[in-house]
Amino acid sequence: MNKVLKGLTDYINASPSSFHAVMNARKELDEAGFTQIFECDSWKIKPGGKYYVLRNDSAVIAFRVPKKEYSGFMITASHSDSPCLKLKEHAEIIAGEKYIKLSAEVYGGMIFASWLDRPLSAAGRIMVKTEAGVEARFIDLKKPVAIIPSLAIHMNRETNDGYKYKKNVDLVPLFGSGKSKTTLLDMIAKEAGIKKEDILGQDIFLYNPMKAEVIGDGSFFSAPRLDDLECAYTCLNAFISAKNTGSIQVYCLYDNEEVGSLTRQGAAATFLKDVLSRVNASLSYDEEKYLRALSLSLLLSADNAHAVHPNFPDICDSNNKCYMNEGIVIKFHASQKYATDGYSAALFKCICDKNKVPYQTYFNRSDMPGGSTLGNLSNAQVSVATVDIGLPQLSMHSSYETAGVKDPEYMVSGVKAFYETSLVRKGNETVIS
Ligand code: ZN
Question: Is this prediction's pTM over 0.90?
Answer without folding.
Answer: yes
